[in-house]
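pasting input
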Amino acid sequence: MTAATTAIDRAAAADPPRPPHAAAGGARRGTHPSWLRSASFRFALVYALLLALSASALCVFLWWATAGLLDRQTEAAIRADAQGLSERWTEGGLPALLLTIDDRLAQNVDDDAIYLVVGPSMRRLAGNLPIWPSFVTEANVPYPLDVTRAGVPSRARVERFDLPGDFHLLVGRDARVRAQLRGLLTDALLWSLIVVAAMASAGALLVRSLFRRTLANVSDTAAAIAGGDFTRRVRLSGRGDEFDQLADTINEMLDRIGRLMEGVRAVSNAIAHDLRTPITRARTRLEDATLHAATEAELRCAIDRATADLDGIVAVFQALLRIAEIEAGSRRAAFARVDLSPVLVDLADLYAAAAEERGLALLTEYPTQPGALAVYGDRGMVQQALANLIDNAIKFSPPGGTVTLAAHAQPERVDMLVIDHGPGIPPADRGRATERFFRGETARHTPGAGLGLALVQAVAQLHGGTLLLEDAGPGLRAVLSLPRHGAQATVPV
Amino acid sequence: MRILLVEDDRDVAGFVLRGLREAGHVVEHADNGRDGLFMAASETFDAVILDRLLPGGIDGLRLLETLRGQQNTVPVLFLSALADVDERVRGLKAGGDDYLTKPFAFSELLARVEALARRGKTEGPVTRLTVADLELDLLSRQVKRAGQKIDLQPREFRLLEYLMRHAGQVVTRTMLLEGVWDYHFDPQTNVIDVHVSRLRQKVDKPFPTPLIHTVRNAGYMLRAEAV
């Protein structure tokens, strides 16, 4: 089995793009390479992209803010200069302006100032530019201007201001130092982008391995369990985070599956064991009859008894299947309002004669007005559950005793009681009495398969109710409580 | 009676065929759904015994639905290994008149088929049932035997009514549970026997000839002559 599975796995692994059983799915999957299908890779990619994107956005903003600031500073200096010069013009006219320009040029320590004043014929009057650059035609607009200063080519920003009397003023600043600064900044930011890319890749790898490690914990456990080791559980990191919660949920699920499997195993063992006895009996009878029956009557008698044994086995199977059917819960779809009073009246009517036959009195104690005892459920199931309880009570009661069938409405539920005064169930056995095939010591010598209470329990569970087994001192007091059917109740609570 | 058996299991079919013929019935057999449908649709039967799971593309449910679609009202008894309550309900909803699960006792099958075939024949509502000197009036709800009034509890009355409606036929304990009490499970206690014996106390005991007979390994039968 294992070898065969491994061989199939290998065959599948050898030819992954086109699995024979998934032609349509294969075509769809085939459009993406396998590494794109990996969730860890996708997470890592998303992480890297997000990091790179946000870092780039930050760089661009930094660059824009710093470089822009430099440009604006230059422009502000030019304007302030021009403002001062225009004030000189207003105060002292052209001579004062020319004088101021010469002064400023002389005092300009950084040697970055550019001035030019021209007359109406665009003739140079003062300043450190030889001629008016022809493209500077608009006033109050910054222009870039290539200049050569002390033999070094450089770029400046200039602005034109028009003075009264068709005089024109050109004020500028050499932007060489600032351009150097900007270049430095650009370089630094570009380098930092490279660093960001490297860090994003490293982070992506880290995210991917973290993701894989977290998943590996779960998938290793699942694989081990699929391989047959049901004791394995998902490790908890102890941090109580989402992964721990997931691990907890998975472990709980595994525990539940384990309990169910244990139950199935116990039941199949019980079936194998408990049915072996009647099957052996039937087989022995038949074999004995073929070997030793002297007359046809004896033979027929043996066959009849073997048939009866087989009928008993079939009855056990039917009870088991019925319990399984109830536990599966598919019948819940057929639930409806059930008025229990007629059900109880019918059952009492059916069983009173049988009880009397055995010298027992069947006492009844329940309200009979319609709707007093309404539950929401399956009428047939409740009937059968109650019948099982009454069957048991009659079976275990000593002659001359009483069996009580009672029911009361409680605010939230309806309690149905079947009380006998037989041997009861010892406290130690009460918990197990509803297990399939459980037969208490006291039940050892009474016919039955040990399925009656299991069925009652299944019915109670399906209806969201309970089955309580209590001491009736002496005897058994079985209480089947089912949730009451709400609004229709007419009995005061 | 003329009965059609549609059953693919050769052992089961052979057993049922032999049993029904021994009981005096004329039985036809089809071992797949297609033949079964053809025979059921083209010939007249008093009852059909139908397996649910059949080879030949047409299973029991489809066969019956097709048959009912043709306004064929022949009584049909399902004989199936599908024993869930849901399956039973599905079978009856499709138009089945009775549902018996495998494994089954032949006596149970025979009793149910005969009851079904008979039911198909009764015409109009009956107000009065009579077997020998026993009379049951459904309107006044009175029972008399040899002119003498017998007091019965309501449930005893319904039990006797059921037996008289099936007079001359075997009635099994399961049929009584279903027909009189509407219970679809088998109690472990012999509740039915106790009720029948109480009915006997009132109907048979005071009179020279018994009418309610026990049929060994099967159930009960009400009729004038001894079984």
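fyi Chain B has eight helices and twelve strands.
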